[in-house]
Amino acid sequence: MAKRPEIKLPSASDIFSTQEERDAERNGAVVEIATSLMDAFPSHPYSVRDDEAMAELVASIEDHGVDTPLLLRPADEGRYTIISGHRRKHAADLIGLDYLPAIIRDMTDDDAIIAMADANLQRPVILPSEKARSYKMKLDAMKRKAGRPSENGAPEEHHLRGVKSIDVLAEQSGESREQIRRYIRIAELNPDLLKLMDSGRMKMRPAVELSYLTPDEQEKVYRVICAEQCTPSHEQAKRIRMMHESDAITDMNLIDLMQESKPNQAEVVRIRKERIERLIPEGASREDIENRVIMGLELLVRIEQQKAAKVV
User: Fold this and answer.
1) Is residue 36 within 8 Å of 99, Cβ to Cβ?
2) pTM of the entire predicted model
3) What mean pLDDT, rounded, does the chain reach?
4) Cβ neighbours of residue 168 closer than 8 Å, sequence gap 6 or more
């Protein structure tokens, strides 16, 4: 019995795109892609913020369109993963654009991670938490690629024999090897402690020390930071890490340590909440309470000045 010839069925992309579009995608040309088919990069380390820079980007796109095409990677079922262009995609969504110019490029998972990290490091504002996660993802991808056979059988990173991936990353980023290590370490911090870094309240070196704590210990440290309204110095963070190594991290030990005076930290005035609770609106934030206290003190100073003027 003769063997039945194999019939190759067309893929979804073959059915729902033109030959011209498919040829353009293979050649890396710029094509118009529906924004509804674009998905964010998995575990994307960068956030898209509706800030002043986003408002400027929206205004620019409204006036001039999108000058730089997005870089996309083909995904399943005719969809695409954004490698570079998350902010442009968000701006387009705000404006209501249905299509954006893009370059489609086939790449491995690790190549996609490296390309994503490199492209997003050009952002106007990068938070420490974003750089930490990006460096970690890129370094892990570089390590996986190192020594992997290429199409001709030679190691893919043969020209870097004897050079560590972290040294390559340091050279590419313009930061020192030790600074790269610090960023990768703080990727181990919990989200609350990372937010303290992003806000500038906690510096890099104490953050690195705290990154060695367990998740439960990090949560304890964060609670004490909130209660005491101050962050640990580098020396205090080193002592907290020593507590971790001796299994001695308790709320009381942390409070005692954090209440020590630090020459580089301004004195904090504390008022028990129950003393002013009846004077503040329900649900007021800590910042709201602080502002109301300052306004009240300013009013009191003016009244005292007026009384003193009348006496004279």
Assistant:
1) no
2) 0.65
3) 83
4) 142, 160
